[in-house]
Amino acid sequence: MPLDASDLGAIWLTVKLASLTTLILLVIGTPIAWWLARTRSWLRGPVGAVVALPLVLPPTVIGFYLLIALGPHGWLGQATQALGLGSVVFSFTGLVIGSTVYSMPFVVQPLQNAFGAIGQRPLEVAATLRASPWDTFVHVVLPLARPGFVTASILGFAHTVGEFGVVLMIGGNIPDKTRVVSVQIFDHVEAMEYSQAHWLAGAMLVFSFLVLLLLYAGRRGKAGWSEMTTSIVARLNLARDDFTLDVDLHLPGRGISALFGHSGSGKTSCLRCLAGLERAASAYIEVNGEVWEDSARGYFQAPHLRPVGYVFQEASLFPHLSVRGNLEFGWRRVAAAERKVSLDQACQLLGIGHLLARRSATLSGGEAQRVGIARALLSSPRLLLMDEPLAALDGPRKREILPYLERLHDELDIPLVYVSHAQDEVARLADHLVLLEQGLVVASGPIGETLARLDLSLAQGEDAGVVFEGLVVGHDPHYDLLDLRLPGGTGPLLRIAQPAHVMGSTLRVKVQARDVSLALAADSTSSILNRLPVHVRESRPADNPAHVLVSLDAGGNALLARITRFSADQLGLHPGQLLFAQIKSVALLG
């Protein structure tokens, strides 16, 4: 028989221990994680360090001190005996206590990250809807943090199952009482019973592999308030003589987040504060759970200690160094073990390998900016900041740089905050859009949703339109037409005049509001290629009094149309009305 009675007993004891430990940790770890994610107290650091201590301490050390504390002469052991509970060492209760202490960071830290990813906005929305703090926590926070609870439960359970040092120190090796699977394997090996050890060890290996599959499968789902986890938080209040910046930014930890607005709206000030180049009177900056600045605690991490890469509006290359010297300046100041990008990788990514021996003064504007981007990447940043990197370039040079910025987006897993006042750049590059006006955040959200909002200035003007990430689902070689499926799985199809692309790949396209006309019925006699059934969401006056802006629902995707007021009256526009959108032009971005 592969597994004997003692093996099965050890497995049952292990499952019982892991289940009970995980349940206890979820109960006590949830308030700890919530407090760590929300507090600005100076105690946050010490408490977080205590919670994380088992990550760095050897299990036998933790087990030894627990044995001393819970033993008959320890303060906890004397307390349990005074309460009539007897000694808990070398008992199942002792195992539970030891496992709870040792597995705590594997439960608390995923919960803390999940709570931090929610951000402030959902809580504010719930408060305005008359939800009490407890009501908000139960009906908003817990559902949004569900992926974190799943991860915490899996990690807590799996870590407890595999523990050896702590359980052996505090529980010993008592059959059917404290002998768990890891100790049982040790006993088999000590007795030279390798066949039995193989069965148990193999079961542990399969179990661990299944845990990893569950974790990685879970990461493909949605998390948090939006589709991308918020991991960059910046609350800034900065006052100058004629300007006040007061923002609360919650940005995704992946992709490109664009800060968009007119000159003087506070975009560059936000970027400089993130980099530590400018110090706000009141500031809290946190990136991936690491606090860089907290004015309430008097904490400020100097710019050179922040793992950021900064690309300025002008390339700002060191004139006394060659291109290679500029690239190696930051690269040499990063420990070899921490370097994420090699010199060859940066040169290949930005197409600058042939420029290494050149002096910065001999470079064109586009070449210099590409070198500046590569230099920032070679500092191995955890956050890349770009302050209008194309503003100083003419049209041809901008078109030269944009494909390289798209490559950064596609090939590097570094969050990028991109400042611009050019809507075409933002539409082409950004995943998340923050609209700033006079030092305040007017809107923040996924690029497609934000561009489609009629209450924002973005919907006005000739460039107003929406952006889609279309899925390539077909190609007509005879007419050279590409079929794109809009988001939503069964969303409508767009046909664009493009050569074949890889099936299943995504393309970003933009539909201008001025290129959409509306009809009461589908007109098959028209030369217009794309005619989609849509429903009216709302309409508002445009900046031109002769026009109105219409927000439309196309299979769950927002679409904008700019039509005359006369046409709106002729159509009898009203919310929910079924119409047909005739799209005269679809622009492929990139």
Could you describe the 3D structure shown?
The strands form four sheets. A six-stranded mixed β-sheet has the order 7-8-9-3-10-11, with helices on both faces. The chain has 590 residues and is an alpha+beta fold. 41% of the residues lie in helices and 23% in strands. Mean pLDDT is 84; it is low at 219-229. It has three domains: 5-218, MetI-like fold (Orthogonal Bundle), CATH 1.10.3720.10; 230-444, 3-Layer(aba) Sandwich (Rossmann fold), CATH 3.40.50; 465-588, OB fold (Dihydrolipoamide Acetyltransferase, E2P). It has helices at 5-38, 44-52, 59-70, 75-82, 92-118, 121-128, 133-144, 146-162, 165-171, 181-190, 194-218, 267-275, 323-331, 343-350, 365-377, 395-411, 423-429, 447-451, 565-571, and strands spanning 230-239, 244-252, 256-260, 282-287, 290-294, 299-300, 308-311, 383-387, 416-420, 432-437, 440-446, 465-476, 481-485, 493-497, 506-512, 516-519, 530-541, 547-554, 557-564, 578-583, 587-588. Helix 5 (92-118) runs antiparallel to helix 9 (165-171). The protein is globular.
